[in-house]
Predict the 3D structure of the following.
Amino acid sequence: MKLLNQSNRRGDLSILISVVAVSIFGLVMVYSASYYQAEITYGDKFFYFKKQLIGLVLGVISMIITAKIDYKAVNKLKYVLIIISIVLLALVLTPLGVENYGARRWLKVGPITIQPSEIAKFAFAVFCAGYFSKDPTRTKRFLGILPVLLIGGVLCILIMLEPNMSITVCVGALMLVMLFAGGVKKRYLFMIVIPVLIALPLLIILEPYRLKRLMAFINPWASPKGEGYQLLQSLYALGSGGLFGVGIFNSRQKLRFLPFAESDFILSVIGEEWGFIGTLLLFLVLFFIVIRGFKIALKCSNFFGFLLGIGIVTVFAVQVLVNALVVTGSIPPTGLPLPLISSGNTSLIVFMSAFGLLYSISKDGENV
Amino acid sequence: MICAITFIFLFVFIRLFYVQVIWGKDLQIKALDQWTRNVPVLAKRGEIVDRNGVVLATSKKTYTIFVRPRAVTKLDETVAVLSEIFNLNEQELKQKITTTKVSEIKIAKHVGKEYIDKLSNYSLSGVYFAEDVTRYYPYDSLLAQVLGYTSADGNGISGLEYYYNTQLSGTNGEILYEADLTGVDIKNKAPSYVPAVNGLNLKLTIDYEVQQILEAITDEAMSEYTPKSASAIVINPQSGEVLGMAMKPSLNLNNVPLGDLETLNKLGRITLVADCYEPGSTFKVLTASANVNELLKGNKNAYSLEHVYSSSRYRYVEGSKIKCWSTHEKGKHANETLADALNNSCNPIFVDIALALGKDNFYSYLNSFGYGKVTGIDLPGEAQGMLLPKSAVLNADLARISFGQAIAVTPIQLVTATASAINGGKLITPYLVKEVYSSGGTLSLKTETKQTGTTVSAQTSKIISSYLEGVVSNGSGKQAYIEGYKVGGKTGTAQKYQNGVISQGKYVMSFIGFFPADNPEYLCLVIVDEPVGGTYGSTVAAPLCKKVFESIIKVKGL
């Protein structure tokens, strides 16, 4: 039972407690943000709450499992995970994919809807960690890093085809961080960064909706009923919260004014109901998780554990920050959920599992 | 890398603080606007009553019915019920409700309570009603042009309704409902009320009984002579209070053709104030007054009261030949004094007077009697009349002005000027609104008689009054004579011009009369424009004025 031989060691419980606490808070806020809309759309004000509760229960279970197993076991799954991810992402583009709001991002299998791109992010982190840790010198040769670039490229293209620019950027950022953490030479990094910096504006110009969003971000009041609507509604919500908030369940903006109040823009509702004090406390906890996560990764004696930890925390940090920047109108709007909090089962389960792994990694650090 | 992430977190904290705390109030005010749906509470428009409290214009509480399509649950039933009750096309209504992009559709406006009762038999979600106000005039066309009417949204757009719109309107209140994006009300949220402030009421100088008399007389004139128009006004010549004003043709205020501007302009004009006409012989009162007043002041150019004027029918002024309407044959208009000239309405005598007094002096009388400027009556659209500028006036013009030609005046100017000639020389401002008061009875305005100038001396006034009494008792105004009452007056027959030439057979017949002559309380001007049959003011307008006075005497028990 090599798989469980570390289970008697103590890990960093604070990260698990923080994650579960944030997720429970998320569950309450999903209810608060969604009940009005859910009542009208589905005739059941607990519609989103129930879904999220299932996600939370499954997330906790899988987190316990991943926390108990030895994270190194995941290394063996690196090819399986990445192949599954690519297949699922490809399936999304077939008629099996479910289209919503003009994008194909979901797979529906019976009663279960999953979002493969959520899985792919972590699969890629596992793959990078596994691939580099097998032979750390790979990072010194261009041919050595080529597989990572190729697989990262394939994932990015598949996700881009959905289209889902924000997750693509997330995966791209993850790839860069993994290369950096793996010790790739600086000139290789620039070779990657520069084309990306050129491609990004091109991708924006190619899709008219992205350009419109960009313009709306610069001046949302120019199109208060059109492209600028979502950002304005988000700002109205945050602003109405003020310092102390209007109190839980009292948000006015969730009364169908703010689109995606329970998912991508749940932070606006939190800001409205809890005020700046609430958002500050929430982000201090999220910041704690990120810093603690990086510490765990850095302390890990195992190169695979180190890389995997960095990968997990990077995905989390990038998503948290991008979401907050979008919601506060600091960068152009893009649809990205707030991890652990926004409604969405796949994301919740995958993130909790990943933090379970991080806990497992933390057990390896104390021995050093 | 940790540094970079820490830095971005710090940025997020600062940004959240900025948006939520510093920018917050601003954003909240903007958001507040979209959170509420407001239903206006219409202020009740003030009433208009006559001097004794008879209600002439009032507002009824009615209802506007509307549908919020997105809140409709039972579409077919809703469409069926609404089209049944409000007599609408079922197909069209259904189409409207299902395809519209607006959040509210108006179904009916200004409907009575009975419709609300019918609606409440069904429980239709998405169907709402709000109070609205409908202006109602209990006497349809009585005093129509003067009262005026309101637009569809309840603003006064003519007559007193327009002139006193600010006072009558009041301030609308509103009910603020908290609603979601689609306008659906939020449960358990009490709406907040901003009460409406009702409009103020107007008490007029109009006497409903006198007004009724004038309406009847002008109707009679219309049916008897089929003229273009007939109008009559009665004022108190001492105070300037207008007791009645009737103009025919008229309109029904409860059914105003708001879209038809041509008809509105034709029927809704306050012609007694807004239109000019050539007054003809009624104007001789001014010329006579000027002479007597100058005489008493010691002006050598004025003729004495006993002066016997030339009996010739003609006067030659600057080469133009001016003649009397009478042939002067068989001893008519011979050896007249001023009193005789008034009795006979003999044109040449007034030409003599005007020329003797001279342009400057005569014009000073025109000015002091108020010609060439508005009287200031509280009605919209008052005209100034047309008075040749003094510098351009030749003696030939002056000669004609002396008997009411080559000058255009508004009826209200003639009434005001004549009033001053018989009330002791006071030029007063005619007015219609006596009091402005709130429903609670608080008075916010009380109009007092306003004297703007003096025209002639009290003694002159006395003499003119007695002369005009003579006109009625044994002159051209005989048809206005009432046995046992002292009635004074003057006839007027003015030729009409069309395209600058005298239009044959077209006259404006008028009579201005007053009683009791020694202390006048009623001054009446009757104008019949282009009557068919009847050639003189004496035969058309004087009998009408007599009937007005007889009716007043009867109604008031004088």
Q: What stands out?
A: Confidence is low (pLDDT under 50) at residues 1-7 of chain A.
